[in-house]
Amino acid sequence: MNCRTAVRVGIAAAIAIALVVPRAHAAGGAKCNSTTGTVMHVGSDGSSCMAEASHGSTATADATETSDATADADESSSAQAIAKSSSTSSASAPDMGVASSVAKSGSEATANAGQLGHATASATDASDALATSGLVGTATAKASHGSKATAEANGFCSTLAKAKRNAQATATCATEGGSVSATATDGGIAIGSDTAPPTCTPNGGTAKVRSTGGNC
Fold first, then answer.
1. pTM exceeds 0.70 for this model
2. Taking CA atoms, which of 14, 59, 103, 205 is between 20 and 30 Å from 115?
3. From the CA atom positions of the chain, what is the Rg in Å?
């Protein structure tokens, strides 16, 4: 083998190693998929997952970097939970619902979908997001940078709660056709409902509510 051939072999080997190492690292997490029964795994990176599905449903739970993800679905439902970087994610859809939760960077996200309901929760950077929907309800909660967002739809209505940078947002609905949007940033607090007057406390940031129950 001459010098030129040796150099080419060395480069090829280095490229092969570079491609293999990231894949091996990514495989250290825990991924669970189920269409029937319960699936549980523990990853080499300290992560864990559980997916439980039955009666024509699909459940997916994916956890990496010392995180925990749990998804359960029943009666033609779909549930997906993703957790990354020391986070906890949970999604539940027991009766023809759709639930999705994503938590990253030390956060917690929980999505609970009721019958024919949709619940979506996402949290990142040490935040907390909770979305709960009742019968035919739609609830979406998004929180980032040390914030908390809670969305609850108790019936055929929709809610959206968004909080950024140490803020708090809460949106709740219960009347048919009702809608509530609550957003807050930079320490602000926004609380909205379709059955009660809203509360907006900027605290030097922003707080805004748009609702069939009132605006602020």
1. yes
2. 103
3. 21
Here the tokens at position 56 are 């024509």
Cα-based torsion angle of the residue sequence 99, 104, 110, 111 in order, rounded to the nearest 10 degrees: -20
State the number of CA atoms in the 13 A half-sphere of 206 facing the CB: 10
First to last CA, the chain: 78
Q: Check residue 62 and report its DSSP letter.
A: E
Query: At 192, which amino acid appears?
Result: G
- Distance between CA atoms of 165 and 8, rounded to whole angstroms? 51
Complete edge-to-edge strand list for the sheet that includes strand 30-34: 30-34, 58-64, 78-84, 98-104, 118-124, 138-144, 158-164, 179-185, 206-211
Contacts 24+ apart (CB under 8 A), 181-190: 181/208, 181/209, 181/210, 181/211, 182/208, 182/209, 182/211, 183/207, 183/208, 183/209, 184/147, 184/208, 190/161, 190/163
Q: Which stretches does DSSP call E strand in 7-155?
A: 30-34, 37-42, 48-53, 58-64, 68-73, 78-84, 88-93, 98-104, 108-113, 118-124, 128-133, 138-144, 148-153
